[in-house]
């Protein structure tokens, strides 16, 4: 039995939908309410553009007039749908549909044009005008409504509810993909705080080929850099290709994980499979769940088969091996995914049906759980073995770096709203998880006869363990700004939620019972990930390549001059060495930005002592870094204050003690430091 047949929904998911005309009224009401929230924000932002206080520029006056007209049209549609005679309105809509449904080209062009209008006007031409989130959400759903109407022209009359959800998922995925567009660029300088570091660590498996020396592999997120480093197999590929490859990993593996989940639910509707895959991909990106972790998820979803013990065992071992070189808190995740699929798809009664009635309950339970137990032992052992083997093969003489996560400070206040995360970890995960949890709770409570308590308790315990672990990891210094440390919980919640919501769990009474999925809950489950993923900033940001070329030429002159007399330590901007943008400069393996930051936050005195000794002895003729300062930040008002303070205490003040500024590039934030002649 293949994986697709392991979970066959008992009833078509499309059977759950509100009345078409009733939902059209509700949709119009919701967009009208969004307009009421968005317009005041647009007026307030427009005031800032005027030549005098309270005035508006001509461009803003035109834009506000157009948006007010859209809001009036939105309101008018709501009024017409609310007061018109139902049968007369349905007849008119049917005639309109018959007259327009003859052209598939019109439907396709209209469907794409509605999305393009949103992208070109809201995200491109008037991005600074629509930078507030509420106007973006309002105009997005207006475009969704228009796109759904065009889709209705060629569809086989599914309810308007499903057309809106399908359109929202596709449009939302397109917008989220555009959010990665700024990351594909030939701009030579780092696009974010740690971007240059990522390419450096990805290059280390090829260090002998690239740099002529062997360099120890990364002790942080090894599997990420193994995937990212595959781009180095393309000889001569520049920084733009490597950036494209990383974006392809983000989008490709997120979608593949989603489609792997959709594959488990047998459906003859390709559109439903696509929609499920896109929804799951967007759900994962809410964290985000980093792409290298999704390899383990994909392996389990594709390889798990409850009726084939050995096949499942192989895939659990492979997935666990990968997890073991990914993140410490992901070591149990492949096992938990496999166990959850078993609990969802295998009834307890089926496992003990032929056992004598006098058998004790624990004997029956052991018979039911022996396979998950075997997979668990093998998976955990595989993950721990992979981790140990990687440490031995990584080339690090000082393996204490691998334990930095266990010695770093825990900042519990970041679970609540703070300067680092204005939303707070707990409120954010509640928002993300609550619709799915309501769906799960409703499904279990409405069909208790279909669930054995052992299955319910097992799934709940795994979710609670991953939630608690994710919350703890989120408080570690260096984190807490988003939900990526709750990635394991988000992943398991997605799998269990999709199975229960799509009728993919097996009943204790036989077969696959109809799923409990009231359409308001389903609406929240599907649309919330779409809305959260709309917040992408400016996808068409423009960079000053002319200024970058000037700065690069000037930087190259300084670096080449000092490289002739000694070592050049590039704490930041190592991509300039990785891609030979600063040619002929020997690389210094030690004291890279991310490693130095991790050692500072974990207070690794052995590592830091070597750094201080090299600074005191003026080992480096030149240091390239972000601007160093000695300002202590206040956690109550400054984001990542503790991270800044750890850097100041353990790194910056020692650099400034022995080195002084020679040059500062204010356009790039790059500081060049040379040894002090007189050290107090």
Write the layout of secondary structure elements.
Blueprint: H1 20-47, H2 58-83, H3 86-100, H4 104-125, H5 133-152, H6 160-178, H7 195-203, H8 207-211, H9 222-228, H10 239-263, H11 270-285, H12 294-303, H13 309-324, H14 333-345, H15 348-351, H16 361-393, H17 425-446, H18 453-474, H19 487-501, H20 519-532, H21 545-563, E1 567-570, H22 575-578, H23 593-601, H24 605-616, E2 620-626, H25 641-658, E3 659-665, E4 670-675
Helix pairs in contact: 1-2, 1-5, 4-5, 5-6, 6-11, 6-20, 7-9, 10-11, 10-12, 11-19, 12-13, 12-14, 13-14, 13-16, 14-16, 14-18, 14-19, 17-19, 17-20, 18-19, 23-25, 24-25
Features:
680 residues; 4-stranded mixed β-sheet; globular; mainly alpha
Walk me through what this model shows.
- The N and C termini lie far apart (76 Å).
- A hairpin with a 4-residue loop joins strand 3 (659-665) and strand 4.
- Helix 1 (20-47) packs antiparallel against helix 5 (133-152) and helix 10 packs across helix 11.
- The chain has helices at residues 20-47, 58-83, 86-100, 104-125, 133-152, 160-178, 195-203, 207-211, 222-228, 239-263, 270-285, 294-303, 309-324, 333-345, 348-351, 361-393, 425-446, 453-474, 487-501, 519-532, 545-563, 575-578, 593-601, 605-616, 641-658, and strands spanning 567-570, 620-626, 659-665, 670-675.
- The chain folds into three domains: 18-157, no CATH class; 238-532, no CATH class; 545-675, no CATH class.
- Mean pLDDT is 89; it is low at 1-12.
- The chain contains 25 helices and four strands.
- It is globular and about 90 Å long.
- By secondary structure, it is mainly α.
- It has a four-stranded mixed β-sheet.
